[in-house]
Write a sequence for this structure.
């Protein structure tokens, strides 16, 4: 009889592995399509050849200098936001949580605006990195502020959500103040940054996001059972030998790193952090061993699809991807909610 | 199996004394029911034994081991605690919910031993037919059995249950308590259970601890400690206690009118 249950468990296990593999294949296909579309369209074979060998000098430059960094950045930033959203929802036990909820994105936006309006740089870095570094610094600062509030009042989900919302409002109003005093050109730059765009992506930036994503996902995977236990409620998790407060702090630090590094290079991209974990959850359940890779891949899928759509909606023009992701993601997500399981939380 | 000895345990919450020098011993193979009015400190007492909260003074012993010196991981392998408010996350099968109880033992890849124990407990509790169903689609009674299974799958030596039957109909209450009694005897566990229903406590508990205002008001066999005077003093009710040998039945009649307000 045990063998029968072992078989049932194996069936579920391999079904989840299958879904993760499907997500990975979809990611790969979208990445290839993303490399193919643009003002200079290219076939699959020519993309592949020019990736390896400069057969067509122009296409080789376009692919290596523009498309490949954009494509990689879409996958990596989507993955980072998907993972950050998943862990935010888990540690706060709240289906509406995302990097937006705790004001991390608002902090990043304010940091970028400080760089644009005053030209102030929190760290001595090259001009190219002024905006990303400021955005990263303020996003991280937001997390530290939330943790400070948690330290005083206890790391409960209520304290963190309320503290985060308050900080988000604070940064939004300070951002509005900066926008009010900004010149027309600066205002335009801030607004464009806030839309979220992949056009300033470079390979070194993609490498940085990759390093952070690889490190955090490995660290979170090694704690996957403990993080899953948080969904059983604080008391149950504590009775399972888990130091709930310490676990929340640790995961919050990983979320801070992921979100800060993702938004600092591409601006604010909403929706992915909220929706990617739910998409993964519908197909993979609550087990973090599968949800972590699942959310990363779902986030990558949504942002990659958004990146493709941003290039093909108006031929020759590239829309900010942040505008597009919600437009293409919401109908798909609603379809899953309406046609899928009733209880996804 | 272990004996739980609570010695002079006190606990403050926001400067209010919730537990005041509690002393009792819970023996292996027995069910010890903790009863008392709301706010008497019953749940807090269970949390101190599960090491979820630390007592401000006093000590709890598992046999001769001091709980304060035990690591949380070791406590989680000895004690299973089923809290009052239980959460079953959205998309988890009954099998997975039960297996999550083994988190202190689980590796990234789940071993055959973990699966074997999970199946064994589910069969013992008669929920193996639900294995593939989603836990949040079960009825209240079924869900509670699943949560008891989750507590048992760790193969604990001490089982702590905080009002495990409070929201269930009478049949489910009896079924679950029968089950808990059977498993407590079979496995020689030390079971401490918080109950509000005095008749259920009288029926299923080997020993009763009556808490009032954070203090142990009385302790002993149910038929020894449950009487009209105790119920009047602790709960502020007039009640009739019918006796038939060691069996007793509590019939609440009316609240006692007190000049000084409620007695607790």
């Amino acid at each position: 009889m045990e063998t029968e249950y072992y078989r049932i468990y194996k069936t579920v296990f391999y079904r989840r592995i299958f879904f993760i593999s499907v997500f990975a294949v979809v990611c790969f296909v979208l990445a290839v399509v993303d490399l193919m579309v643009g003002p200079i369209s290219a076939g699959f074979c020519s993309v592949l050849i020019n990736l390896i060998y400069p057969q067509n000098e122009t296409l080789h430059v376009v692919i290596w200098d523009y498309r490949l960094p954009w494509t990689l950045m879409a996958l990596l930033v989507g993955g980072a936001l998907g993972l950050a959203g998943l862990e935010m929802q888990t540690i706060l036990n709240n289906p509406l949580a995302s990097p937006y909820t705790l004001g991390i994105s608002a902090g990043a936006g304010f940091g970028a605006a400080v760089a644009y309006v005053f030209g102030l740089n929190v760290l001595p870095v090259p001009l190219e990195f002024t905006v990303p570094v400021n955005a990263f610094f303020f996003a991280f600062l937001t997390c530290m502020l939330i943790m400070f509030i948690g330290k005083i009042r206890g790391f409960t989900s209520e304290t963190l959500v309320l503290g985060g919302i308050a900080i988000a409002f604070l940064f939004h109003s300070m951002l509005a103040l900066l926008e009010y005093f900004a010149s027309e050109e600066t205002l335009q730059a801030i607004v464009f940054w806030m839309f979220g765009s992949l056009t300033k992506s470079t390979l070194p930036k993609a490498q940085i996001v990759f390093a952070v994503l690889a490190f955090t996902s490995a660290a979170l995977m090694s704690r996957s059972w403990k993080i899953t236990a948080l969904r059983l409620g604080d008391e149950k998790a504590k009775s399972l030998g888990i130091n709930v407060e310490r676990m929340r702090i640790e995961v919050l630090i990983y979320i801070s790193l992921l979100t800060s590094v993702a938004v600092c290079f591409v601006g604010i991209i909403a929706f992915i952090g909220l929706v990617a974990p739910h998409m993964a959850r519908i197909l993979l359940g609550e087990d973090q061993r599968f949800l972590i890779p699942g959310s990363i891949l779902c986030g990558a899928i949504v942002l990659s699809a958004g990146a493709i759509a941003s290039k093909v909606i108006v031929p020759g023009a590239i829309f900010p991807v942040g505008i597009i992701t919600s437009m293409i993601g919401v109908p798909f997500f609603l379809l899953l909610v309406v046609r899928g399981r009733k209880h996804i939380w | 199996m272990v004996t739980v000895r609570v010695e002079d345990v006190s606990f403050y919450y926001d400067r209010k004394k919730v537990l005041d020098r509690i002393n009792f011993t819970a023996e292996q193979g027995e069910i010890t029911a903790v009863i008392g009015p709301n706010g008497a400190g019953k749940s807090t007492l269970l949390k101190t034994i599960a090491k979820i909260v630390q007592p401000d003074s006093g000590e709890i012993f598992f046999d001769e081991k001091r709980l304060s010196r035990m690591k949380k991981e070791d406590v989680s392998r000895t004690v299973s605690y089923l809290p009052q408010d239980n959460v079953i996350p959205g998309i988890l099968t009954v099998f997975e919910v039960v297996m999550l109880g083994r988190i202190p033992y689980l590796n990234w890849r789940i071993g055959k031993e973990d699966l074997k124990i999970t199946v064994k407990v589910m069969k013992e509790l008669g929920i193996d037919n639900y294995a593939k169903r989603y836990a949040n689609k079960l009825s209240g009674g079924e869900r509670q059995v699943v949560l008891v299974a989750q507590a048992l799958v760790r193969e604990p030596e001490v089982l702590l249950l905080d009002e495990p039957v409070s929201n269930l109909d009478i049949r489910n209450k009896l079924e679950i308590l029968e089950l808990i009694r059977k498993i407590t005897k079979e496995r020689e566990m030390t079971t401490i259970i918080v109950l509000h229903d005095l008749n259920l406590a009288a029926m299923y508990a080997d020993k009763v601890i009556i808490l009032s205002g954070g203090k142990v008001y009385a302790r002993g066999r149910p038929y020894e400690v449950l009487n009209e005077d105790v119920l009047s003093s602790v709960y502020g009710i007039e009640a009739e206690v019918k006796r038939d040998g060691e069996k007793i039945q509590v019939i609440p009649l009316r609240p006692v009118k007190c000049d000084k307000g409620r007695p607790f």
Notes: Chain A has 14 helices and no strands. Chain A touches chain B through 36 residues (CB under 8 Å). The radius of gyration of chain A is 21 Å. Chain A has a mean pLDDT of 86.
